[in-house]
């Protein structure tokens, strides 16, 4: 749903399912201002009925579902959507800390959930409204991510971001590489193989780079490590003791010579998608919509989806929570449970192809049988659902977002030749220590 590794900038789908941009950057900024200006989440309608506010970011696929909820319950719902997570999250953090300004239901991105779990008194315990009955519906790890150690249910899972690798078939063909997705997947069972393929691509001199920027590849590799790459569950930094984190960093730095050096989510990066400036992109399920909407008609049939090197991994996903400041916690909990039910997940999948986190939805024909015409009819439902069922996700500590920012900045400095690998690592660790306090 994504700047920081996020789903920001994804196009919002209309109820028809056709991708359209809902908001420009100006509108996104206005959305942030709206969150500031609103003193409380919900209120009373003119006839005394309850009106709920739900705060979301990116594309969550809720247009039709919210209309259905209103029709079935008589409860009005206002969605306040901010396009970019980099605008959304700081404002949400401020509103939660202030005790006012947040919606009755708020979306929380996966990398930030631990931070909010550490403030349980600022959220309703959804177990008090029957949410514990939903536990068996969810992937076990997704349920645990939204629950405090003592069993308080803070967030109910929405989507997840299991991984694939998108690639430009035209550029691959020009480089003399295979273009069929099964053959492409066989090129890179490991990240070292991926780099070797990139070197072969570069030697073909197509005029394009193999990767857009090394930054998203770090998030992709890290998502495969499992464990706690930044902080343990006590909140202590483990960067120096976790060899996997340094190994992931070194692997990604090794891609620097293959990079177009286009910072992710920047205007230049989006232009690179439009102009076929790079050949591969790590693709959590939600990234497909961004490529389709950014590349437009010119990208249809160019892009396809192969397996990600190194196995699965998860990048992104979110939760719905009810801040304690809500004046209507019972109705808000009802809305959160409606949207995160199996039917709610399938409705969001139908509207926006946000990958469900409930096992029944993941195993349904609606998901597993889904193909995406834009990506050469790639069986994306099967690709992503299969990966999702095998995930061993990374533990995210309370300072994950700030540490991510530190590593992204360090990788950018290495990529641009401003620092060598060791200098970049030392800077990232120093900034992470500062962020973790």
Question: Can you walk me through this structure?
Answer:
This protein is an alpha+beta fold. The protein is 42% helix and 15% strand. The chain contains 19 helices and twelve strands. The strands form two sheets. Strands 3, 4, 5, 6, 7, 8, 9, 10, 11 and 12 form a ten-stranded mixed β-sheet that branches. A hairpin with a 5-residue loop joins strand 3 (43-44) and strand 4 (50-57). Helix 9 (215-222) runs antiparallel to helix 10 (243-253) and helix 18 (400-415) packs antiparallel against helix 19. The longest helix is centred in the C-terminal third of the chain and has 16 residues, at 400-415. It is globular, with a radius of gyration of 21 Å. The model is unreliable at 1-41 (pLDDT under 50).
Key features of this structure:
437 residues; alpha+beta; ten-stranded mixed sheet; 19 helices; 15% strand
How many angstroms does the end-to-end distance come to? 29 Å
The proportion of strand residues reads 5-15%
Question: pLDDT under 50 segments (min length 5)?
Answer: 1-41
**Shape field:** globular
Work out the radius of gyration.
Answer: 21 Å
What's the count of strands? 12
Number of helices: 19
Largest sheet: 10 strands, mixed
Q: Which percent bin holds the helix content?
A: 40-55%
Q: Mean pLDDT score, rounded?
A: 87
Structural class: alpha+beta
Topology:
Elements: E1 12-13, E2 19-20, H1 25-37, E3 43-44, E4 50-57, H2 63-73, E5 76-82, H3 85-98, E6 105-109, H4 113-117, H5 140-145, E7 155-168, H6 169-174, H7 181-187, H8 191-203, E8 209-211, H9 215-222, H10 243-253, H11 267-274, E9 278-284, H12 287-295, E10 303-306, E11 314-321, H13 329-339, H14 342-352, E12 355-356, H15 359-362, H16 365-368, H17 380-389, H18 400-415, H19 421-436
Parallel strand pairs: 4-5, 4-6, 8-9
Antiparallel strand pairs: 1-2, 3-4, 6-11, 7-9, 7-10, 7-11, 7-12
Helix pairs in contact: 1-3, 9-10, 18-19
């Amino acid at each position: 749903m994504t700047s920081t590794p996020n789903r920001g900038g994804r196009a919002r789908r209309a109820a028809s399912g056709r991708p359209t941009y809902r908001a420009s950057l100006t509108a996104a900024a206005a959305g942030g201002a709206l969150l500031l200006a609103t003193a409380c989440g919900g209120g009373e309608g003119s006839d005394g009925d309850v009106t709920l506010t739900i705060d979301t970011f990116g594309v969550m696929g809720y247009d039709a579902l919210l209309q259905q909820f209103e029709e079935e319950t008589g409860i009005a719902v206002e969605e306040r959507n901010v396009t970019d997570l980099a605008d959304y999250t700081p404002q949400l953090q401020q509103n939660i800390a202030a005790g006012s300004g947040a919606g009755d239901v708020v979306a929380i991105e996966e990398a930030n959930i631990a931070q909010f779990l550490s403030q349980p008194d600022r959220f309703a315990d959804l177990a008090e409204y029957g949410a514990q009955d939903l536990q068996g519906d969810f992937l076990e790890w997704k349920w645990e991510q939204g629950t405090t150690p003592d069993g308080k249910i803070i967030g109910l899972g929405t989507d997840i971001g299991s991984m694939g690798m998108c690639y430009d078939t035209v550029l691959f063909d020009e480089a003399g590489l295979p273009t069929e997705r099964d053959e492409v997947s066989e090129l890179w069972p490991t990240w070292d193989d991926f780099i070797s393929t990139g070197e072969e691509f570069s030697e073909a001199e197509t005029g394009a780079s193999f990767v857009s920027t090394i930054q998203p590849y770090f998030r992709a590799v890290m998502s495969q490590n499992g464990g706690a790459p930044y902080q343990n569950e006590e909140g202590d930094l483990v960067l120096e003791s976790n060899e996997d984190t340094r190994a992931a960093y070194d692997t990604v730095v090794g891609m620097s010579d293959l990079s177009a050096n286009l910072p992710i989510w920047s205007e230049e990066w989006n232009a690179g998608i439009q102009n076929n400036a790079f050949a591969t992109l790590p693709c959590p399920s939600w990234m497909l919509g961004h490529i389709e909407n950014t590349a437009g008609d010119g990208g249809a049939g160019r892009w396809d989806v192969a397996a990600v090197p190194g196995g699965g991994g998860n990048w992104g996903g979110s939760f719905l929570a009810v801040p304690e400041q809500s004046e209507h916690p019972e109705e808000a909990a009802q809305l959160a449970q409606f949207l995160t039910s199996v039917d709610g997940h399938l409705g969001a999948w139908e509207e926006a192809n946000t990958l469900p986190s409930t096992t029944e939805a993941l195993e349904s024909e609606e998901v597993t049988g889904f193909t995406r015409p834009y990506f050469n009819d790639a069986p994306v439902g099967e690709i992503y659902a299969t990966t999702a069922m095998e995930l061993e996700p990374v533990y995210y500590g309370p300072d994950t977002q700030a540490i991510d920012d530190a590593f992204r900045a360090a990788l950018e400095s290495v990529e641009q030749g401003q620092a060598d690998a060791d200098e970049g690592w030392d800077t990232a660790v120093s900034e992470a220590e500062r962020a973790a306090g």
